[in-house]
User: Which sequence fits this backbone?
Protein backbone atom coordinates (compact mmCIF):
# COMPACT_ATOMS: atom_id res chain seq x y z
CA UNK A 1 0.00 0.00 0.00
CA UNK A 2 1.14 3.51 -0.75
CA UNK A 3 1.92 5.68 2.24
CA UNK A 4 3.68 8.79 3.38
CA UNK A 5 5.15 9.36 6.83
CA UNK A 6 6.13 12.59 8.46
CA UNK A 7 7.72 11.36 11.67
CA UNK A 8 7.81 14.72 13.47
CA UNK A 9 4.64 16.47 14.57
CA UNK A 10 6.60 19.64 15.26
CA UNK A 11 10.03 21.02 14.44
CA UNK A 12 11.49 24.02 16.23
CA UNK A 13 14.40 25.94 14.78
CA UNK A 14 16.03 29.28 15.51
CA UNK A 15 15.79 32.01 12.92
CA UNK A 16 18.81 31.95 10.62
CA UNK A 17 19.54 28.28 11.25
CA UNK A 18 19.04 25.58 8.60
CA UNK A 19 15.82 23.62 8.78
CA UNK A 20 14.84 20.11 7.76
CA UNK A 21 11.35 18.65 7.68
CA UNK A 22 11.38 14.90 7.17
CA UNK A 23 9.29 12.77 4.85
CA UNK A 24 9.52 9.11 3.95
CA UNK A 25 7.32 7.25 1.51
CA UNK A 26 6.28 3.84 0.38
CA UNK A 27 5.00 3.50 -3.16
CA UNK A 28 5.10 1.00 -5.96
CA UNK A 29 6.78 2.18 -9.10
CA UNK A 30 8.32 5.57 -9.57
CA UNK A 31 7.24 8.09 -6.94
CA UNK A 32 5.91 11.52 -7.69
CA UNK A 33 6.55 13.57 -4.56
CA UNK A 34 5.28 16.97 -3.46
CA UNK A 35 5.63 19.46 -0.63
CA UNK A 36 2.91 21.89 0.36
CA UNK A 37 2.72 24.56 3.06
CA UNK A 38 -0.39 25.67 4.92
CA UNK A 39 -0.64 28.94 6.79
CA UNK A 40 -3.35 29.39 9.47
CA UNK A 41 -6.88 29.34 8.10
CA UNK A 42 -5.63 29.01 4.54
CA UNK A 43 -5.52 26.33 1.88
CA UNK A 44 -2.36 24.54 0.88
CA UNK A 45 0.27 26.27 -1.23
CA UNK A 46 2.52 24.29 -3.55
CA UNK A 47 6.24 24.46 -2.74
CA UNK A 48 7.96 21.95 -4.99
CA UNK A 49 7.75 18.54 -6.60
CA UNK A 50 9.95 15.70 -7.75
CA UNK A 51 8.99 13.82 -10.87
CA UNK A 52 12.27 12.65 -12.35
CA UNK A 53 15.80 13.84 -12.95
CA UNK A 54 18.00 15.72 -10.52
CA UNK A 55 17.60 14.48 -6.96
CA UNK A 56 17.79 18.02 -5.57
CA UNK A 57 14.66 19.98 -6.32
CA UNK A 58 14.43 23.71 -5.77
CA UNK A 59 11.11 25.34 -5.02
CA UNK A 60 9.40 28.46 -3.80
CA UNK A 61 10.55 30.75 -0.97
CA UNK A 62 14.08 29.30 -0.93
CA UNK A 63 12.99 25.76 -0.07
CA UNK A 64 14.54 22.69 -1.60
CA UNK A 65 14.08 18.96 -1.18
CA UNK A 66 16.33 15.99 -1.76
CA UNK A 67 14.99 12.79 -3.23
CA UNK A 68 16.82 9.74 -1.87
CA UNK A 69 15.65 6.56 -3.52
CA UNK A 70 17.63 4.16 -1.35
CA UNK A 71 16.24 5.69 1.83
CA UNK A 72 12.82 6.36 0.29
CA UNK A 73 12.96 9.88 1.65
CA UNK A 74 12.10 13.33 0.38
CA UNK A 75 13.18 15.74 3.13
CA UNK A 76 12.39 19.45 2.84
CA UNK A 77 15.24 21.83 3.58
CA UNK A 78 16.08 25.50 3.77
CA UNK A 79 19.56 26.91 4.48
CA UNK A 80 18.36 29.80 6.67
CA UNK A 81 14.97 29.78 8.37
CA UNK A 82 12.75 32.84 8.68
CA UNK A 83 10.09 33.48 11.31
CA UNK A 84 7.63 33.78 8.43
CA UNK A 85 8.35 30.14 7.49
CA UNK A 86 6.38 29.06 10.56
CA UNK A 87 3.50 27.00 9.20
CA UNK A 88 2.20 23.48 8.68
CA UNK A 89 4.06 21.47 6.04
CA UNK A 90 2.65 18.49 4.15
CA UNK A 91 4.48 15.91 2.11
CA UNK A 92 2.45 14.07 -0.54
CA UNK A 93 2.97 11.23 -2.98
CA UNK A 94 1.00 10.56 -6.12
CA UNK A 95 -0.39 7.07 -6.13
CA UNK A 96 1.26 5.23 -9.02
CA UNK A 97 -1.22 2.36 -9.09
CA UNK A 98 -3.48 3.96 -11.65
CA UNK A 99 -6.02 5.31 -9.22
CA UNK A 100 -4.24 8.67 -9.30
CA UNK A 101 -4.88 9.44 -5.67
CA UNK A 102 -2.64 11.85 -3.88
CA UNK A 103 -1.67 10.60 -0.42
CA UNK A 104 -0.75 13.22 2.12
CA UNK A 105 1.30 12.90 5.26
CA UNK A 106 -0.15 14.04 8.57
CA UNK A 107 1.79 17.29 8.49
CA UNK A 108 4.68 18.78 10.44
CA UNK A 109 4.31 22.07 12.24
CA UNK A 110 7.41 24.19 11.80
CA UNK A 111 8.06 26.86 14.40
CA UNK A 112 10.87 29.30 13.72
CA UNK A 113 11.93 31.16 16.84
CA UNK A 114 13.21 34.72 16.69
CA UNK B 1 -5.06 34.41 -13.27
CA UNK B 2 -7.61 33.56 -10.60
CA UNK B 3 -6.85 30.65 -8.33
CA UNK B 4 -9.17 27.97 -7.05
CA UNK B 5 -12.16 29.50 -5.30
CA UNK B 6 -14.47 27.91 -2.76
CA UNK B 7 -17.75 28.98 -1.23
CA UNK B 8 -18.93 29.54 1.34
CA UNK B 9 -15.98 30.35 3.56
CA UNK B 10 -17.82 29.15 6.64
CA UNK B 11 -20.88 26.96 7.00
CA UNK B 12 -22.72 26.13 10.20
CA UNK B 13 -25.25 23.30 10.21
CA UNK B 14 -26.94 21.07 12.73
CA UNK B 15 -26.88 17.31 12.94
CA UNK B 16 -28.98 15.60 10.29
CA UNK B 17 -28.96 18.54 7.89
CA UNK B 18 -27.37 18.61 4.47
CA UNK B 19 -24.42 20.77 3.42
CA UNK B 20 -23.42 21.87 -0.07
CA UNK B 21 -19.93 23.16 -0.74
CA UNK B 22 -18.81 24.66 -4.04
CA UNK B 23 -15.52 24.86 -5.88
CA UNK B 24 -14.39 26.64 -9.03
CA UNK B 25 -11.12 25.36 -10.48
CA UNK B 26 -8.40 27.35 -12.15
CA UNK B 27 -9.35 28.19 -15.72
CA UNK B 28 -8.27 25.36 -18.02
CA UNK B 29 -8.15 22.75 -15.26
CA UNK B 30 -10.44 19.78 -15.76
CA UNK B 31 -9.71 17.76 -12.62
CA UNK B 32 -11.15 18.64 -9.22
CA UNK B 33 -10.24 16.92 -5.98
CA UNK B 34 -11.96 17.18 -2.60
CA UNK B 35 -10.23 16.62 0.74
CA UNK B 36 -11.34 16.68 4.35
CA UNK B 37 -8.96 18.16 6.88
CA UNK B 38 -10.20 17.34 10.36
CA UNK B 39 -8.30 18.54 13.38
CA UNK B 40 -5.24 16.41 13.93
CA UNK B 41 -5.94 14.06 11.03
CA UNK B 42 -4.15 15.63 8.11
CA UNK B 43 -5.75 15.59 4.68
CA UNK B 44 -8.07 12.75 3.81
CA UNK B 45 -8.88 12.22 0.14
CA UNK B 46 -12.62 12.37 -0.52
CA UNK B 47 -13.39 12.52 -4.24
CA UNK B 48 -11.82 13.10 -7.64
CA UNK B 49 -13.77 14.41 -10.63
CA UNK B 50 -12.49 14.77 -14.15
CA UNK B 51 -14.36 15.73 -17.30
CA UNK B 52 -17.65 15.58 -15.45
CA UNK B 53 -17.22 12.08 -14.06
CA UNK B 54 -16.33 10.71 -10.66
CA UNK B 55 -12.98 8.93 -11.14
CA UNK B 56 -12.21 7.82 -7.62
CA UNK B 57 -13.34 8.22 -4.05
CA UNK B 58 -11.72 7.78 -0.68
CA UNK B 59 -12.89 5.78 2.30
CA UNK B 60 -15.93 7.86 3.12
CA UNK B 61 -19.58 6.79 3.42
CA UNK B 62 -22.01 7.33 0.52
CA UNK B 63 -23.57 10.35 2.23
CA UNK B 64 -20.52 12.20 0.91
CA UNK B 65 -21.20 12.79 -2.76
CA UNK B 66 -20.73 15.41 -5.40
CA UNK B 67 -20.70 16.27 -9.01
CA UNK B 68 -18.79 18.21 -11.62
CA UNK B 69 -20.51 20.57 -13.99
CA UNK B 70 -19.77 21.17 -17.70
CA UNK B 71 -17.72 24.26 -16.77
CA UNK B 72 -15.62 21.97 -14.49
CA UNK B 73 -16.81 23.58 -11.27
CA UNK B 74 -17.82 21.11 -8.61
CA UNK B 75 -20.13 20.60 -5.66
CA UNK B 76 -19.60 18.47 -2.61
CA UNK B 77 -22.74 17.36 -0.81
CA UNK B 78 -22.77 15.92 2.67
CA UNK B 79 -26.08 14.42 3.76
CA UNK B 80 -27.26 13.50 7.24
CA UNK B 81 -24.52 15.56 8.87
CA UNK B 82 -22.78 14.17 11.91
CA UNK B 83 -20.74 16.03 14.51
CA UNK B 84 -17.53 14.42 13.26
CA UNK B 85 -18.07 15.94 9.82
CA UNK B 86 -16.89 19.24 11.27
CA UNK B 87 -13.70 20.01 9.36
CA UNK B 88 -12.03 22.17 6.77
CA UNK B 89 -12.98 20.95 3.30
CA UNK B 90 -10.39 21.70 0.66
CA UNK B 91 -10.81 21.63 -3.07
CA UNK B 92 -7.90 21.35 -5.49
CA UNK B 93 -7.65 21.41 -9.25
CA UNK B 94 -5.11 20.24 -11.78
CA UNK B 95 -4.82 20.33 -15.53
CA UNK B 96 -4.17 16.72 -16.36
CA UNK B 97 -6.12 13.59 -15.61
CA UNK B 98 -4.54 12.39 -12.41
CA UNK B 99 -1.14 12.79 -13.93
CA UNK B 100 1.90 14.40 -12.51
CA UNK B 101 0.69 17.94 -12.70
CA UNK B 102 0.53 19.92 -9.49
CA UNK B 103 -2.69 20.23 -7.54
CA UNK B 104 -3.58 23.80 -6.63
CA UNK B 105 -5.73 24.29 -3.57
CA UNK B 106 -8.50 26.68 -2.69
CA UNK B 107 -8.78 28.38 0.70
CA UNK B 108 -11.30 25.84 1.98
CA UNK B 109 -14.75 25.82 3.52
CA UNK B 110 -14.92 25.48 7.28
CA UNK B 111 -17.93 23.29 8.09
CA UNK B 112 -19.16 23.26 11.66
CA UNK B 113 -21.83 20.77 12.68
CA UNK B 114 -23.63 21.55 15.92
Assistant:
Amino acid sequence: AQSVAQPEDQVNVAEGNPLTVKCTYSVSGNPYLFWYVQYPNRGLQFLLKYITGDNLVKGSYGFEAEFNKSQTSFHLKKPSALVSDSALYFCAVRDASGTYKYIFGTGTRLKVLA
Amino acid sequence: EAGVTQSPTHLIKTRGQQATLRCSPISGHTSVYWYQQALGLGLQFLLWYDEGEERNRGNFPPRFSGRQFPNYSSELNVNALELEDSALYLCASSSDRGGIDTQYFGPGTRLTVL
In short: Residues 32 and 52 of chain A are 8 Å apart (CA to CA). Chain A touches chain B at residues 32, 34, 36, 42-46, 49, 51, 90, 94, 99-107 (CB under 8 Å). The first strand of chain A starts at residue 3 and ends at 5. The two ends of chain A are 41 Å apart (CA to CA).
